[in-house]
Write a structure and sequence with these properties.
alpha/beta; six-stranded parallel β-sheet; globular; 26 helices; single chain; 15 strands
Length: 635
Amino acid sequence: MEKERVSHHASVQRMYERIRQDGLTNIWDRFEAQGLGDDPDKRCPFCMGGVRCDFCSNGPCRADAAKDKRGVCGIKADGMAMRMMVLRNVMGASTYHYHTEQTIRTLRATALGNTPFSIREPEKLRSFAARLGLDTSGVPADIAMRLCDFAEKDFHRHAHEPSHIVAALAPQERLGVWKKLDIFPGGIYGEMLRATSSCLTNVDGYYVTLALKAMRMGIAMAYQSQIINEYCQDILFGIPYPHKMRVDLGVLEPEYVNALPNGHEPFLGFAMVQLARSPKWQEKARAAGAKGLRVIASIETGQEMIQRWTMDDAFYGFTGNWIMQEAVLASGCVDLFACDMNCSMPIDPIYAEKYQFKLIPVSDLVAFEGVSDRLDYVPEKAAEQAAQLLDMAIDNFRKRYGKIRAVTGLPVTEAVVGFSTESILEVLGGTLEPLLDAIKKGSIRGVAGFVSCTTLRDTGQDVHSVRMAKELIKRDILVLSMGCGNGALQVAGLCRAEAAEMAGPGLRAVCRALGVPPVLSYGTCTDTGRCADLVAAVSAAMGGVPIPDLPVVAVAPEYMEQKATIDAVFALAFGLYTYVNPIPTVTGAPNLVKLLTEELSDITGGLLNVNPDPQEASDALLAHIETKRKKLRIS
């Protein structure tokens, strides 16, 4: 593969060459091998169109809308494509909510005094509980217990029982739209049950009702899973505030014991950092022959951590997003790869054997062929488990160092991370007015919630994400970046104050005045809910402007997996103009495509836009923003 088809990042391009020299299977070669002919992006046209099904023994079936060729059961192409999308949505919602359940479990155990953590943000706990209508009297532990009880009860409401969390947190204007469309949700478990059951053979084959069920589940997910999760993690580990963080593969140095918590849940990662910061653990590492002990943040677990805690010699930096995984593991610098509930690849055991690091699942969801050791996270045992993991890393250093050729001299840079609603308000002097003034005056034309994965479809890792972000800021659109796409922009240098020089004149002036980058690092994919809450706050500050009328867009330039699909469906239900790439696997369903890209604006106010060309896509996003500015008379 050509360098840019591998990755935007020079560090990954270099590691790809090392992996190939070592003769290992890798994600780039595997992607290329899946292509048809000499085109790595070309696959089965029925699969690409979303119009094949193997749900029952009458199949597999293929549908062709142009010929009215249906599945054996009679389902049309549109229903077939949307039904598969709903099932992707269920997987995304359930995985988001698994994380939330673990967070509530950790908060409850912490309130009882049974974890190494503490309630770091009692004021946020109190204010969030108040928003939910809870009794805020008593000590923080009492409030936390009430919050856990309330949340868990709401999660388990039947689909026909309205969610109290959604009613308390969503904008009133949206609540009215959702009730009118009958997509105001019940509990998340009830919605997942309803959506999954609808996808059984011969139950619901109508693309419109399936799309509405997906949006209803997406709303439950955003408020019950994402917002509850992130705000409770803030309460436990701290509200994100801006600070610098080392990023890219150069944070890995072979002379140190390097322990990498990987995945999406930060609990054991934070517990390891707490221990690694003590002289006792640093001395244990030196006794093994290392210069010291470092916890290195990786993928979305790492993103959760770096948003909240500052770097030092023990919590040293962040590698990047999930497609970097094999590059990270092949560096010859890793001693421990602790894998929680998401984004650990089935191929990892081969890399563990080759490069001699300890690979261990720390979630009951994760398993690897040939790996029997595991240490599933238990909140009450977090300190003990973190110590076990660090001991594994130190023991592994003795086996690795000097025996595995390490790659050194890889690039490292710094990014400004840690933006949140609270920190943005602080930068603005405690009110949204300076931001709103900049939008009204036109210095900032609009805001893009940039929530993305990373993929090899059409371009190399992060190539399209970086291009899109540059095009957006060039058009004076402020970017709030989340997910693996956030890691892409951090490593690419767009989350630095100096990146303001790439922005248009209006945004550049605002960034210089405030000392902030044009791309604000806003968290993980789970922070989609946090971003929606910020958009709601902007709506309220502008006098209750309906969400679809705001100069705000959602952007997912490199969506990849199932979580991303439910994020996009929620954005459409929320009323946002939503850009996604690569082109989703629904192109064989013309009526569904028309619903999502044309008709939905008259239903929820949201609209889907797809275009692989970054300039054309950014022009369309800006045109939408300018239409909304004109409607608000702020053009």
